[in-house]
Automatic annotation (TrEMBL):
InterPro entries in alphabetical order: Arb1
Biased segments, Basic and acidic residues type: 32-42, 499-510
Name this protein carries in UniProt: Argonaute complex, subunit Arb1
A cellular-component GO term for this protein: ARC complex
Gene Ontology biological process: regulatory ncRNA-mediated gene silencing
Short name of any one Pfam family annotated for the protein: Arb1
Biased segments, Polar residues type: 486-498
Region (Disordered): 1-67, 478-517
Length: 517
């Protein structure tokens, strides 16, 4: 065994060297140099303490076995630590209760007894529906987007929604409450007493909310975004049926669920139709006759679209009049806008006839065949009333308002998105030859559209009674007469010194009464 090199330290190189001699009865070499730093070790006679010098290794040198063991434990603990992620994204991906395959399980005996107590038909409807709202909102896992839609639907239906509607207690106060009391304290839903006399109709609210307000407020652009609203409302209505909350409105709730199912299909079709409207034929008419798509350029393809559409798809009378106008260069081929309407409602649809398809294939390859849409005039009740003369107003009030029937030509790839009862907000124009066409579509209402004014009452608050203003005192009345210079001003009393009595105006300035100077 080779002797130890006296020039090396115990735990690495030191800024001093070791002496060649060793110290008796000690476990380490005699240190020369900075003996002051190891004074404590010199006073310690135990060999174990002697071999634990307070000298740390340099970063570039390997650590001792103890240090390696400690570092390995720290690394293992970090690996075993589970990453929870940000609080805003915890719980995502877990079942929410709104999946297609989800259904509520059978009730236990205690749950059934609780439901019979809470939803006893003899209790007022407002108390029962409020209990159902609190429990549905508490026990359904809703993402922020879904909760926003659900709360907006409730607000549209007259339910008050807001932060800490139940009281807003602190965490310390919540610990002293029972589970039932804490659930009520956390709720954000409630019903104002002033709305207890309103009409209750689940189907009307669903038709009004999904028919117009949902699309205008949330602007869905995908099928999943539409289903987010319809499935949430459908799930809530199913919850009311499952727990038998209001059996007197069972038929109304069933109709509201059918409205939700219909909305999932129609709203997506309406979005597709709106994005592709008005079609090649109507767009060509709009361009040629000064509509929304009018342009100063001259494109012969627009005339070809118009000619092919009228020749192959329009009625024979329209074709003859249009042909005569072109042959004679008739200047009477003008556009007549239809006034005092907001759009049209589809009555029936005719697909392109077989001979139309053959003619397009032979003579107009590359163009889409057109079908026929029969419609009637539509006035949107949600818009402002039309300014009419007294005689016209009387006629309109007694059912004598003018009505129109239209026949439009529309491409077959757009006819698949149309259905009878669909209401389209657009400008309708008529050519002097009898052909109707429509301009850019502004909005599309589904077949179940119901005009309600609930959106105007979303943030409505009943005005409070204002206290009666204070009546001016007799002195204030005299002061007003003096300042206004009224001829009825009485003679002013003089003071004992012979001067005129000074009026204390500060008293009137500090009062709450307003004066007109």
């Amino acid at each position: 065994m080779e002797p130890a090199d006296p020039t090396k330290t115990i735990s690495g190189d030191l800024p001093f060297r070791l002496a060649g001699t060793t110290k008796q009865n000690s476990g380490y070499s005699n240190l020369k140099g900075d003996d002051k730093a190891f004074k404590e070790q010199d006073n310690n006679d135990t060999p174990e303490a002697a071999f634990q010098p307070k000298i740390s290794a340099k970063p570039s040198e390997p650590a001792s076995q103890a240090e390696e063991h400690t570092m390995q434990q720290i690394v293992d603990n970090l690996k075993r630590r589970k990453y929870k992620g940000p609080k805003t994204k915890r719980g995502r991906g877990r079942p929410t209760g709104f999946e297609k395959w989800n259904c509520d399980g059978p009730l236990t005996v205690d749950e059934f007894r609780e439901d019979r107590y809470l939803y006893e038909p003899s209790r007022p409807f407002m108390l029962r529906i409020e209990e159902a709202l609190i429990r549905f909102d508490r026990f359904r896992r809703m993402e922020p987007e879904r909760r926003n839609i659900f709360h907006k639907y409730l607000s549209y239906g007259g339910i008050a929604t807001g932060h800490n509607y139940g009281g807003g207690l602190s965490n310390q106060d919540m610990k002293t409450l029972t589970e039932e009391e804490a659930m009520r304290a956390r709720t954000q839903l409630g019903i104002h007493k002033e709305r207890e006399g309103m009409e209750i109709n689940f189907n009307k609210v669903a038709r009004g909310f999904l028919g117009s307000f949902f699309g205008q407020f949330f602007s869905p652009s995908k099928q999943s975004e539409i289903d987010l609203g319809t499935v949430t409302i459908h799930n809530f209505l199913t919850y009311l049926l499952f727990h038998d909350v209001c059996p007197e409105y069972k038929e109304d709730i069933l109709q509201a669920r059918e409205t939700c199912n219909l909305a999932s299909k129609e709203l997506w079709k309406n979005l597709k139709l709106l994005s592709r409207s008005p079609g090649a034929f109507n767009k060509a008419c709009s361009f040629l006759f000064g509509g929304y798509h009018f342009d100063i350029r001259n494109d012969s393809s627009d005339w070809s679209l118009l000619k092919y559409g009228i020749t192959f798809g329009a009625a024979y009378e329209v074709y003859e009049r249009f042909k005569g106008a072109l042959e004679e260069d008739d200047p009477n081929l003008t556009v007549i806008p239809i006034r005092d309407i907001d759009g049209f409602e589809i009555v029936s649809i005719e697909e392109a006839a077989p001979h139309v398809l053959v003619n397009y294939e032979k003579h107009a390859a590359g163009h889409t065949p057109v079908g026929i849409v029969h419609a009637k005039s539509f006035r949107d009740p949600s818009k402002a009333e039309i300014d009419l003369s007294p005689q016209e107003q009387w006629d309109w009030d007694h059912g004598k308002a003018p009505s129109y029937s239209f026949t439009f030509l529309l491409e077959t790839d757009l006819l698949q998105f149309c259905s009878p009862g669909l209401k389209i907000i657009t400008k309708v124009m008529e050519l002097s030859c009898g052909l109707h066409f429509f301009d850019q579509m502004i909005a599309i209402y589904p077949t179940f559209y119901e005009c309600l004014h609930n959106d105007m009452m979303l943030h409505w608050k009943t005005p409070k009674k204002i206290a009666q203003p204070l009546q001016p005192s007799r002195e204030a009345s005299v002061f007003n007469e003096i300042v206004s210079g009224s001829p009825e001003t009485p003679s002013q009393p003089k003071s004992e010194q012979g001067g005129q009595k000074k009026v204390d105006t500060k008293h009137y300035e500090d009062s709450d009464t307003d004066f007109d100077y």
